[in-house]
Amino acid sequence: MSTSQQPSQPAAAKAGAMLDKLVVIDIGTMVAAPVAGTLMADFGATVIKVEQPGSGDTLRGLGPFLEEESLWWNVDGRNKKSITLNLRTPQGQAILKRLVARADVVLENFRPGTLEKWGLGYEALAEINPGLVMLSVSGFGQTGPLSNRAGYDRIGLAFSGIMALNGYPDRPPVRIATSMADYFTATLGAFAIMTALYHRDVNGGRGQQIDLALYESMYRMTESMTAAYDRLGLVRTRTGNVHYGAAPGNNFETSDGRYMTLTCSGDAVFRRLCQAMQRPDLHQDPELATHAQRWNRVEELNDIVGQWIRETPLQTVCDALDAQGVPYAIALTIADIVEHPHYAARENIVSVDHPTLGPIRMQGVVPRFSHTPQRKVEPAPAVGQHNAEIYLEQLGMSAEEFQRLQSEGVL
User: Fold this and answer.
1) Which of 106, 84, 104 is nearest to 95 (CA)?
2) 3-state SS class at 390
3) Which domain of life is it from (predicted)?
4) Is-contact 100 388, C-beta < 8 A?
5) Catalytic site positions
6) Do 31 and 97 share a domain, yes or no?
7) Which pLDDT value is given to residue 13?
8) With contact defined as beta carbons under 8 Å apart, do 37 and 43 qualify?
9) What is the pLDDT of residue 375?
10) Exposure of 217 in the CB half-sphere (CA atoms within 13 A)
């Protein structure tokens, strides 16, 4: 291609502004639905967080706390605008409809049927704004015999089948240490919203409601579990840190008392691991030539690998594995992470300037895009911090009406 035929270089993009024309109304609480909004806000969407007057979002009341402020809220409430509005009042419901008329997306995670009782269900809002996309997150979905049952993160883990797989076979199931069902539902919800918006704006479709249950997002993560049961009658059970797809594979104790995660599935990786351990006899053994054969002797192989890692200085182990290109990682604590040079090089941790608490370090914006710089993360707002901006400037509410609704507890 000649120089004259080279495509023009893209214009410099505004940092984090890929979604800057998108308006999202977040009437959810806690994590699953609201964090879908946080993910979009990280890339420039205007996300208006609707909170209960006075107390605000439930997440504000969950620790750990710094000077009576929830650090959890400060992570997941970032980059949003906060307004207060009592949706249980007719006036509040009418104001929400005015907001929805100007929005692209509504996020909610009320118990199914609650918004319909208030005249704020999808069908009612779609009459006002046919292009509206509504993400409705619930424990068990909007339909089905369990739709009215309350559901939270670990409930979703249990009902999805994930909880029964987590832990050791001789002990009770163990929950995943973070709110995995909430956060993956938020991620899947954000993807679903963008899919619906693409269909609306590119394919000429209309807006629609997205019905997403906590358990469904986790059930989608269960690998081949259903197919294996369907065709082979296999029922997955708890196996601790041993996984059928990795032989050898475990969390191995290191010489300094930490743990190294190492898994080996491919034949080439197994050969390189044996070279790192200076055990060519293992990969030359015809009875260990395939992963299926190695899985039959996984305990024996894990003992061999475990002994090498435990009895060899950690740096020597890491150097040997790196030299052979064997994947591994030390199980890092957060104290390790904030000091790790790779996290620093990738800018995975950002410092957010809170107006009263000072700088707070937290997760950075991911994923990265080649032509759009990461946006500067704005601190999570105080309860109702943007009431005047949204109600007076954007909705055109008069000062008299604004003050009256505040005195009546609507705002």
Assistant:
1) 84
2) helix
3) Bacteria
4) no
5) 182
6) yes
7) 64
8) no
9) 87
10) 30
Look at residue 7 in the predicted model and tell me its pLDDT.
39
Same domain, 48 and 114: yes
CATH number at residue 66: 3.40.50.10540
d(CA 270, CA 289): 9
Domain shared by 182 and 98, yes or no? yes
- 3-class secondary-structure state, position 329: strand
Residue 12 has what pLDDT? 55
Q: Does one domain contain both 327 and 363? A: no
Who's near 221: CB < 8 A, 6+ residues apart? Answer: 160, 162, 184
Summarised one tens digit per residue, pLDDT across range 378-388 is 999 999 999 99
Separation between Cα atoms, residue 254 and residue 328, nearest integer Å: 12
CB 380 within 8 A of CB 77: yes
**Structural domain span for residue 285:** 248-331
Domain count, the chain: 2
Q: How much is the pLDDT for 111?
A: 95
Q: What is the pLDDT of residue 1?
A: 35
- Which of 391, 382, 375, 380 is CA-nearest to residue 45? 375
pLDDT at res. 15:
73
Q: Token digits for 309?
A: 């890692």
- 391 token code pair: 């109600």
User: How many H helices and E strands in the chain?
Assistant: 18, 13
Name the stretches of the chain with pLDDT < 50.
Answer: 1-10
